[in-house]
Write a structure and sequence with these properties.
- Two copies of one chain form a homodimer.
- Chain A is mainly alpha-helical and 356 residues long.
- The first copy, chain A, has one domain: Farnesyl Diphosphate Synthase (Orthogonal Bundle).
- In chain A, 74% of the residues lie in helices and 1% in strands.
- Chain A has 18 helices and two strands.
- Chain A has a two-stranded antiparallel sheet.
- In chain A, strand 1 and strand 2 form a beta hairpin.
- The longest helix of chain A has 30 residues.
- Chain A starts with a helix and ends with a helix.
- About 3% of the residues of chain A have low confidence.
- Chains A and B meet through helix 2, helix 5, helix 6, helix 7 and helix 8 of A and helix 2, helix 5, helix 6, helix 7 and helix 8 of B.
Chain lengths: 356, 356
Amino acid sequence: MTPAELHLYLDECRELVTAEIRRIIPADPRRGAALYDLMLDYPLREAKGLRPALCIAACRALGGKLEAVLRSAAVLELYHNAFLIHDDIEDESLLRRGGPTLHRAYGVPVAVNVGDAMLALSLQPLLDNIETLGLGPALRILQAVARMTRESVEGQALELDWVRRAAWDLADEDYVTMVEQKTCWYSFITPVAIGAIAARLDPGRIDALTSFARRLGVAFQIQDDILNLAGDVDEYGKEIGGDLWEGKRTLILLHALRHAAPEDRAEAIRILALSRHESAHGSASEAGTRVKTPDEVRFLRALVDRTGSIDHARAVASAWAGEAQRAFDGCAAWLLPGVHRDLLQSLIQYVLERVR
Amino acid sequence: MTPAELHLYLDECRELVTAEIRRIIPADPRRGAALYDLMLDYPLREAKGLRPALCIAACRALGGKLEAVLRSAAVLELYHNAFLIHDDIEDESLLRRGGPTLHRAYGVPVAVNVGDAMLALSLQPLLDNIETLGLGPALRILQAVARMTRESVEGQALELDWVRRAAWDLADEDYVTMVEQKTCWYSFITPVAIGAIAARLDPGRIDALTSFARRLGVAFQIQDDILNLAGDVDEYGKEIGGDLWEGKRTLILLHALRHAAPEDRAEAIRILALSRHESAHGSASEAGTRVKTPDEVRFLRALVDRTGSIDHARAVASAWAGEAQRAFDGCAAWLLPGVHRDLLQSLIQYVLERVR
């Protein structure tokens, strides 16, 4: 599949799912109209459409129908966008998909509520699956979603715990554990699992397919970290260097700290302990901490270059993509040949080469 | 039932449900331990235990067993406490159940995540109901929860919409609509409905019982507004006058504005438009607004007294309690005589007379 064909597939899936989200969100002009508009804000922004494509492609490559999976794919987008809104608050992020984050545009109270509203509306469509898919698959999808939410919240908790403990002495394996929980479960593993359930795949084979998805997700996230440091803001849609400002535990930064000279490491950790914004959240514990300066962030960026950490990240991402390919090869025999299987295969190269 | 017996019943239900919450929240010492501790923070604080008691009493007064309802009652508490945490952020509240609100103690990022974590953990126990209650009741409980979350988020949205539009020209009916959605659905209607489903009550009768619960909830919330203005902080556990500082649309304040002299009304609305805290959330739209002074809040408090608005609220609460009694009388014939039915009956007087 050519890159152009791949992007066309992703765009089509995104449009299908966005239309389905519009059907899920009630359009009551009298009440809560402002809320419902804001629930469409992130979903309508330019996005890659990876989750919808994974979900739909997995279902269809296994012989399932589009209608069997579309509603669940839309629910995953509701969950994902709800978590994005709340993550942006938690991370004090400034930009999302080329625009200001929701809490910057409308304030934290509204953004918290919009995320909650999206989570609240996600249960009913999954119950409606009972009528269209039958009880067994509908319940297995509910179980998959329950697992997904637990894993992703635990991953977020793990990361917040590192922040609170000022933990920086972390190995690549710690990073991968966090990424699997925080990113892979809701953006890769569960979309593929739900596509497979909707297509009534034998449960024994679902693990093989989700193993592919998990490895793909790790490669994707490492590439995302690389783009955050070395990407083009117009393509990437988020602020370049935002991870350094936010003090995110990325594979790159952890490698840089492990390979820095002791005095550079100490200086970097001092800088990383500083806030991003002045008393942004009014938390008592943050009162009095100074904010990072552009010079200090430039120091971190130079350290990353000196330690060759971006090259290290590229090599690790590439190795995970290789693992994803091996997992895919193990499934290829029982995936139907055609555009849907090709899409799944092509995503392996895509996650490494993408610029946004 | 004497007040002492009623409090004993509430306390017992609260303890049963708290123990069940501990069973739902995983106790993994390695990962996310800090998160799991924080999830117990609000549930372990002194609380009335109304929802657990309503849920358990409804089930048992209909001949259901405690075990049939306990897990679902615990899930309702998870939902309720998650919404409390997020509401406290949205309302910039300072105190909750006698202690600092979670976001004041740990910062907004952690508080957003703890609430999300509680919501995330709430799906699995409801799926586990399938094994213990059978498929039909388990699915009806899931449907009840889906409805509850939608109603309460819509109620919250309605209120936030009033804040954004600076809407103050509101009737008692507007207030009641908001309270039914925001408070009654998750604290009264759904607990009773789930108790009834767990006891396998004929669906036709559930509406009669939830009508009682809804009316009880409106009376409860009006009394809560009264305590917020005229209560004792040591009993009430929240800041007295907090609703005025936060500019909450209460029955009391709306009545005061409707009955104030035109110049007092204009002054009150000017004051209510001011923020509570300085740039508490870093929202662009709030930048530059001045905060309320204690003198200005005292002006609002005096206005409430001049217009007799607290007496009006007492009369309205009493009328709703009367409506609740009439609804209860319609159910009494098919509720089993005994302590559980007595508890439901006694709550009507309790919501009006409570001091906390």
